[in-house]
Amino acid sequence: MASLRFKALEVLMNRNPIESEFEHHYKYAELFGENVFGIDKMKQYLSYDSLKSVKKAIQIGDKIDIRVANDVANAMKIWGISKGATHYTHWFQPLTGSTAEKHDAFFEPQHDGTAIDQFEGKNLVQQEPDASFFPSGGLRNTFEARGYTAWDPSSPAFIFGKTLCIPTIFVSYTGESLDYKSPLLKALSALNKSATGVAQYFDKEVENVEATLGWEQEFFLVDNALYSVRPDLMLTGRTLFGVGSAKNQQLNDNYFGSINSRTMNFLSEVEVEALKLGIPVKTRHNEVAPMQFEVAPAFEECNLAVDHNQLLIELMKKIARRHNFRVLFHEKPYQGINGSGKHNNWSLKTNLGINLLKPGKNPKQNLQFLSFFVCAIKAVHDYGDILRSSMASPGNDLRLGTGEAPPGIMSVFVGEELTKKLNEVEVKIRGGKMSPEEKTEIKLNIGKIPQLLIDNTDRNRTSPFAFTGDKFEIRSVGSTLNCSAVMTAINTMMAKVLKEFKIQVDQKIESGLKKDEAIFEILRTFISTSKKIRFDGDGYSKEWEEEAKKRGLTNVLKSVHAYGEKVGETSIQLFQEMQVMTRAELEARYTINLERYQKIIQIEARILGDLVLNHIIPTALNYQTQLLNNIEKLQKVTSGIVMNSQMTTIEEIAERVDLIHSKVNELVSKRRAVNEIPQIEKKAKAYCDSILPFFDEIRYEVDKLEKIVDDKLWPLPKYRELLFAQ
Ligand code: ADP
Ligand code: MG
User: Fold this and answer.
1) Of 409, 431, 529, 658, which residue has the fewest beta carbons closer than 10 angstroms?
2) Whether pLDDT at 649 is above 80
3) CA-based angle 191:194:199, to the nearest 5?
4) Are 290 and 153 found together in one domain?
5) Do 328 and 418 lie in a common domain?
6) How far apart are CA 578 and CA 443, in angstroms?
7) According to the model, what pLDDT value does residue 145 have?
């Protein structure tokens, strides 16, 4: 009987011919925002007063009263129904890592046997989903069992399928955040406050500052039939076994290569639907590994960009099924080839449209740039471990520091020319004094430099935090992670450093220095105290690891160890002072991280055991029996001849099967022991230290078997098929 693997390959080969990628024609600009209840729709459906109220809520976070909410709800309902929506839902991002929704129909039966469509302000503003199935890290025990979702007017409602989705935060009844969005909104508000204060040194007209985010999402595609017969891919998102394909990425022929038709059809449909949802997807290209791709939008306001990333992930999963694909968002689906990340490009923008991390056209703007630029470096210097902690996950552990992504060390790349300028500022200013010519020279010249970075001539692709000319690119974020965690961290860190900067500059001004000189003086101290975080060399090299150690920088490689930074005193003080998270909320998040980590490794370990005992070993023994039968028959016709090669294979199978068996038994009993550990911190660390090492040991033996067992019998789709057959 053919193995499931061959059945899957047969399904794949018998698929209908691929539709031409040139068949459909779309007008992208016209589609944009079609399914979003944005300002244009509001103008059409809302009264003037309600529109004004909502705009204020979006811009400065003003409260919306219930009359306005009723008006907005009614408008959303009329618009939604006209677009075919039958249901509405609060759409939120619990700490499970995916999005959550609970649909209610607009439809409402009446006493007289008729029915109407209804959606009221109170349903728009607040709902109470059953919170008990979402992770709360113990917050529910200490506080309240119930949780509620509350409307976030700064992210517009949209229609997904036949459902009107309303972006919301998710908090416990006593106000503790149970999601990704609520701390992010608080971080953005803290950033706004601090950054506006500093920006006003340079332009009194600035009223607010927002963070901008442009993410780049990497992923793999795999055929659905092959995926369905790989239990490891299906249940863990990654392959636990598999011999590397003879050809993979070594010819470098994939990166930016032409996208195959089947993928192009899929990506076009994703793009069309994404654009309708207001996600400004702009870029698509092949990545380094076979069947690996990247999609990136134009940057947006940070909160909106985060929602759009989550939404795109859901959209891609859904659309993939129609194309008989599965999308793998895991950080490392395949060993031996590149995994996937999600670069977060980050900057700050004033309400006047000025990018604060982009050098300007005149000396004043350049000094402004320098201030924000140096504060960003100082933020990573002061709170790098918190940033590292925000991107920790078991999947990301498999790629950080392995030569394809930065290690656990947080450093900042600024490029040769800006380094020179920072050094000049540091050396030249003494006690706030610098000659007027020197100041002008610095302020003028700094404006010319970043063009080099924008033009790609002075870039560094091995730095976790790289300045690219008009923004920073955070490069260690994993492909499955919700950008919120990283964005909450960096914006809070930046808010704190900007606040500190302003306090110190104001003190200098009070003590008699001119504003310019005061700014230069504080910049000088910030530059010099944060120097050790700057590194322009090869971030993937061994030398950097050693150098970083000498500089006293930490290199936390495993997420179970990185998580702890959240509940360190530095972190608690920072998040509490900036009013982003309380100690209790941070502790809850720490617990949730550990629980998730432990459960993920536990699931992987179970599947590994299951695959070995039920798939791999029976297959190997089956083949061994074939060889034994062969020898038996051969001996009947050729008595006396020793069957050397068959015997070697038979013995090898016997030895490896034995070894695998005993290792799996050992793994199971270790797991039992570790499961008894009551404290989650110790338990998660034990999973990392004493369970994970078995994975590689067992894999080594299994992969050896894959190499010798008859191809026809092997049950799991091989790497070459997963990566190339389609
Ligand atoms: P790459 O890093 O792939 O060479 P680019 O540097 O052109 O490409 O841009 C990468 C990403 O940076 C894009 O997704 C874009 O949206 C984002 N980006 C550009 N400017 C900003 C900004 N001011 N703030 C945030 N993100 C930005
Ligand atoms: Mg990039």
Assistant:
1) 431
2) yes
3) 110
4) no
5) yes
6) 31
7) 59
| CA-based radius of gyration for the chain | 29
With respect to residue 482, please indicate whether it lies within any of the assigned structural domains.
yes
- Atom number, ligand 1, closest to the C-alpha of residue 355: 23
Tell me: the pLDDT tens digits for 491-503?
A: 999 999 999 999 9
Helix (H) or strand (E) holding 426: helix 416-428
Please report whether residue 457 resides in a domain. Answer: yes
How far is the centre of ligand 2, averaged over its atoms, from the C-alpha of 391 (Å)?
17
Q: Are residues 575 and 618 in the same domain?
A: no
Q: Which two tokens stand for residue 150?
A: 């509350």
* Secondary structure of residue 412 in the 3-state scheme: strand
Query: For 132-144, what is the mean pLDDT?
Result: 68
CA dist list (Å): 285 to 7, 310, 537, 713 = 31, 20, 27, 36
How does DSSP assign 618-635, residue by residue? Answer: HHHHHHHHHHHHHHHHHH
User: What is the pLDDT averaged over residues 67-96?
Assistant: 95
323 has pLDDT over 70? yes
In ligand 1, the atom with minimum distance to the C-alpha of 349 is: 23
Task: Work out how many domains the chain is built from and give that number.
Answer: 3
pLDDT in tens, 172-196: 888 889 999 999 999 999 999 999 9
Q: Quick one: what percent of the chain has pLDDT higher than 70?
A: 94
For residue 432, name the pLDDT band (cuts at 50, 70, 90). low
Is residue 328 domain-resident?
A: yes
Which among 157, 179, 201 is the end of a domain?
Answer: 179
For a mutational test of ligand 1's pocket, the pick from 299, 461, 465, 490, i.e. the residue with the most ligand atoms closer than 8 A to its C-beta, is 299
Q: State whether the beta carbon of 217 lies less than 6 angstroms from ligand 1.
A: no
Ligand 1 close to Cβ of residue 298 (< 6 A): yes
Per-residue pLDDT band at 642 (split at 50, 70, 90): low
Q: Are 331 and 340 in contact (CB under 8 A)?
A: yes
CATH number of the domain within which 515 lies: 3.30.590.10
Answer whether 434's CB lies under 8 Å from 428's CB. yes
Question: Quick one: pLDDT at residue 349?
Answer: 98
Same domain, 482 and 603: no
Where is the domain boundary, 539, 562, 594? 594
Query: Do 148 and 71 meet the contact criterion of CB atoms below 8 Å apart?
Result: no
Residue located nearest, by CA, to atom 3 of ligand 1: 216
Q: Are residues 610 and 588 part of one domain?
A: no
CATH of the domain at 654: 1.20.120.1560
User: Considering only CA atoms, which residue is closest to atom 17 of ligand 1?
Assistant: 214
467 lines ligand 1 (CB under 6 A): no
Cβ atoms of 653 and 708 within 8 Å: the answer is: yes
For residue 604, being part of any structural domain is answered with: yes
Q: Is pTM beyond 0.90 here?
A: yes
Residues 611 and 650 in one domain: yes
Average pLDDT over residues 98-118: 91
Q: Which residue has the higher pLDDT, 92 or 442?
A: 92
Domain that holds residue 660: 595-724
Residues 401 and 499 reside in one and the same domain: yes
User: Ligand 2 center to residue 726 CA distance, Å?
Assistant: 28
- For the stretch 532-585, pLDDT in tens is 999 999 999 999 999 999 999 999 989 999 999 999 999 999 999 999 999 999
